[in-house]
Amino acid sequence: MIRVKTYVSHSPINGLGLFAAEKIASGALVWSFEENFDHRYTEEEYNALSESVKTYMLFYGYKYIRDGYYYLPVDNDRFVNHADEANTHDADDGNIYASRDIAEGEEITLNYEEFDCDWHGKLGRNPHEKSQMEVIAEIMPAVEEVKKKGLG
Description:
Distance between the termini: 14 Å
């Protein structure tokens, strides 16, 4: 769950991004997993999902490098874009902290390589991966399925 004031807007990096609605001090907690709010799935639970839901999860969520669980945050965390030199970082405790002061109005970024097992696919660094538009077209049925179940 996002622990600082933010808003979603157009991003110069990619599509939509998450922006600081206030100054965020270096070292501040930006995100942490919130039990009964964010979703965490074991490999077995993930494998039992339909293909369209799996595609949705891997687009908006991630398989965490540190523990092997699949995570699907349900707040605007899904709009955090990648930057090689990000202004936040994934710490050993599994939380996201500001790596430096982040100005009000600045886009909040995270280096996907730090936490996401599928970082290469999300960043288009694998020529066999689908484009974002192809993935969006595939996940739209899952978006509707998630909404019907009251999860989105």
